[in-house]
Amino acid sequence: MEKTVTPIQVERKTLTYETQKRWLGIAFSLPALVLLFTFLILPVMLAFGYSFMSYNMLNPDGKEFTGFDNYIRLFQDGIFLTSLKNTLYFTALVVPIQSAVALGLAILVNKKVKVASLGRVFFFSPVVTSMVVVAILWTFLYNVDSGLINHALNFFGIENQPFLLSADQSMNSIIFMSVWQAAGFQMMIFLAGLKEVPEELYEAAEMDGASVWQKFRNVTLPSISHVTGFVLIITTIQAFRLFIQPYVMTNGGPSDSTKTLVFMLYENGFQFRDVGYSSAIAVVFFFIVLISSLILKKILKQ
Amino acid sequence: MRHQTKKKAGKVITTMAILLLGFLFIAPLLWMIIASLKPETMIFKDMGLAAFLPKEITFSNYAQILFSDRIHFFHYMWNSLFSVSMIVIFGLIVNSLCAYALVKLKFPGSDLILVLIIALYVVPFESMLIPLYIVVNNFGWINEYPALIVPFIASAFNIFLFRQFFMGIPKELEEAAMLDGATPWQTFWRVVVPNSKPVFATAAILTFVTHWSDFMWPLIVATDESIRTVQVGVQYLFTDNNIEYGQIMAALSLTTIPVILIFLFFQRYYVQGITSSGVKG
Question: What's the ipTM?
């Protein structure tokens, strides 16, 4: 039968196949595109629109265009400046610390030892644990009198620390916990990068008598630079989104020391129901995330 | 010889370092599970190593949060399991079809759409939280299951994940199907899907774990107890003054154990998803 198919028949077949393909392409992608538009693109556009309005959910008919009023109010709001400062502080510390810890762990579990895969599971398990669970658990661990961490510090002769109860220590306590929770994620990405570094490079360096540090500096780091760049960018974006930890552990306190941009956005939107003001925070937040990742991308390219 | 012993010493040091650090990483979770099995009075009395060594094991904490009349944790778990499973099932269909259409069934504008979708991936969810609430409210979905499901079915990340995989499927496979007279739809179902099981597994697992952990959104749209999810439920228990610590520990463990099991069983797919998003992209 196959032999009887003439070239003309094949051509006609592919032609209808092509048009069929085009229409099916539109039909196949339509559900996702409609959903993405309704629940992603539209809300983003609305956020921009609302940010120029006076709009409270408790009084939905009192919508009014007020220009840049929300933004002017924002930059005069002391709590906003504190939240911005706290968010930047968290990001500035978490990104380098977490990436360094992750790289260290990745190098460890990349070694050919029997416990490497066990280590991978251990380092990664906090990542699959949800942030809410982690935050509740660590509130117990950080407890001044009955927390295991203070108990361990006592063992080494250090007196009880207030941790979450002190404005000086609260953010650092959250940073420490966040690194513990998420380092395993970046570790996996670094590990994939390390696996692609050719063994010969290390052998050549060894022949030249390179020390462990020199091998790390001159072979490992340059070979995984693209992975490092990716890790730094996703960790930065993730860090800016800080919310669950202060919400669960400190409620933004003590004295606003753990209040963040997203916390403030949530507070204004869903406790004070101030859609306009909250949207202005959302827009500023969006641009901070976007601009920081663009700057990082630029720096890392060099 | 010297080189050999040096290597051996290095291995011993690495092993010790992994085990020691590994314990530090796993210790809080270990404590959580062990404390959930202890009688209430012992949880904050056992300190130091005793915190990790239960003298007496009891399941009463679990029994109380799962089957008591006051706390409906079993119901919270069901709400989460149901809504997350729906996101996974519909998400796999919708996102794989979209990625396939954009990669293989090119139509006018499909390349531009792909670029736009990848760009959408950088929009942080929090920046559209309030308007999304208003959109969902207009559909009348507040305190209804669709609020927890529908906004998360289409995912720019998953479309990207599928796209990466579908690009690697050789043209010859589809051409063979086409010459056999298969329609594009049949080609997708009979050729592409069976050859793409790993990416479906990866997308399913990543989606499940991500949305099982969702907190902020359910906190806002699922305020009614009948639809409360597991993460919000555990947070409510934490702030409830009339509850025992052992019960909170049991709730924390129940929230965590499903995802730990998924991770242990499907580790390969999970890790593939994380790394393929970054290293090759």
Answer: 0.91
